[in-house]
Write a structure and sequence with these properties.
This protein is α+β, with helices and mostly antiparallel strands. Strands 1-2-8-5-3 form a five-stranded mixed sheet. The longest helix has 31 residues. The chain is globular and about 55 Å long.
Length: 406
């Protein structure tokens, strides 16, 4: 049983199915506390921050480090498994601090521009239409598998220049990394397979560049400095995983929100210009990420009257922050016209704010607009109580969403 000092078990099946009642109690009893949290493959003694103001401030606080060199030793020290040995993370944009992070983000930003994202709009629209063409009116289908997972895989695959026949492998590797209940060995095997394939793909792009992000990353140059092979590999791996899982979860949980709030669906159908704002509300209402990626303190940090010592692991509970009544009025109510929904923390905050956020927003805007345009009738094909959320510690996504659209 992975319980914390408060008695809350943040790794239990029941918590994953309904995290909000637990987070509400935690916010009321104190905005920070020690809990057992699982990252990749080991249970860790960590600090979890549950309110919006402290969470947002800490996401941008330089005293919370993501440095890949020092992280493994701190993970080992805080692991509940004395036999566990944390693998070294390759230095990447996700696992680095300024000035190293600044250099990497600048180089990657040259390849992942708003222009490249906006250029994908017609292609994403055609792909969404093709997926929706496969929906048989009135016939039950799983929206998670057929739309929510399919679209981001096509988009990320197209963005990176991955051949379509390898998309299923990406899906398998990503699923293994997100799972709570598979072993460290299985996770390392999935990472190994992904990196072996990416090394081969990068080699092919070097020999024969295309109009894709991997080719652009190979060419990205800042005063003669380019990404090293390791940096290139870890960047592509990051884009592959972060861009797929979170967008898929946003789509499926957003559709569920509209299925269970038909009045809100009617509001959007009556005024499609509200869709971009509604996407922000879906991201706030049901964050695709449960907690932030791992950070550790480089010195004592005071949070809500509690001092977190140096070399402690800290997670920000994004789902909890996004439903903090001190920041969002009536936070448990879905409101597609909510002003200020964009202040959610689902894409992080500060220097590590998600670089792929514009692409995720674009996908969300397109898929929800087309679903509303093409299908006047939406019906959940099962009792909402029977729906299950995937058993992962990091992400928040539905296992299945059986629906009928017509």
């Amino acid at each position: 049983m992975s319980t914390s000092s408060s008695g809350a078990d943040l790794l239990s099946w029941s918590f994953v199915q309904d995290p909000y009642s637990t987070y509400e109690k935690l916010r009321e009893s104190g905005v920070v506390g020690r809990h057992v949290v699982k990252t990749l493959a080991t249970e860790l003694d960590a600090w979890v921050v549950t309110d919006y103001d402290n969470g947002r401030a800490l996401l941008a606080d330089p005293r919370l480090s993501k440095d890949a060199v020092n992280l493994p030793a701190i993970v080992n020290a805080r692991s509940l498994d004395p036999e566990y040995s944390a693998p070294e993370h390759p230095r990447s944009m996700l696992f680095s601090d300024p000035p190293e992070h600044t250099r990497l983000r600048k180089l990657i930003g040259r390849a992942f521009t708003m222009r490249r994202v906006e250029k994908m709009r017609p292609w994403i629209e055609r792909t969404t239409d093709a997926l929706l063409d496969g929906v048989r009116p009135g016939r039950e289908f799983d929206l998670v598998d057929d739309i929510a997972l399919a679209l981001p895989i096509y988009v990320i695959g197209n963005l990176l220049g991955v051949p379509e026949e390898r998309f299923d492998d990406f899906k398998t590797w990503s699923g293994a990394l997100a799972s709570v209940d598979i072993s460290a060995e299985e996770k390392q095997k999935a990472i190994g397979q992904a990196f072996a394939y990416l090394a081969q793909l990068i080699q092919e792009k070097r020999a024969s560049p295309g109009d894709d992000m991997i080719s652009a990353l190979i060419e990205a140059d800042d005063d003669g400095v380019r990404l090293t092979d390791t940096e290139l590999m870890s960047t592509v791996f990051l884009v592959m995983n972060a861009g797929y899982e979170t967008t898929a979860n946003m789509i499926s949980s957003g559709v569920l929100a509209l299925l269970t709030h038909p009045g809100q669906r009617d509001v959007l159908r009556a005024d499609p210009t509200l869709v971009p704002g509604a996407v922000e509300e879906f991201l706030r209402y049901e964050s695709p990420l449960n907690v932030s990626t791992i950070r550790f303190t480089t010195g004592p940090v005071e949070v809500g009257g509690v001092t977190i010592p140096e070399n402690e692991i800290v997670f920000i509970a994004l789902m909890s922050a996004n439903r903090d009544p001190a920041r969002f009025a009536e936070p448990n109510r879905l409101d597609v016209t909510r002003s200020g929904a964009h202040a959610h923390l689902s894409f992080g905050h500060g220097v590590h704010h998600c670089l792929g956020a514009p692409l995720a927003r674009l996908e969300g805007e397109i898929v929800f607009r087309k679903l509303l345009e093409r299908f006047p009738t939406w019906e959940l094909a099962v009792d909402p109580e029977s729906l299950e959320w995937r058993y992962t510690a990091q992400f928040r996504g539905l296992e299945k969403l059986p629906v009928r659209l017509s």
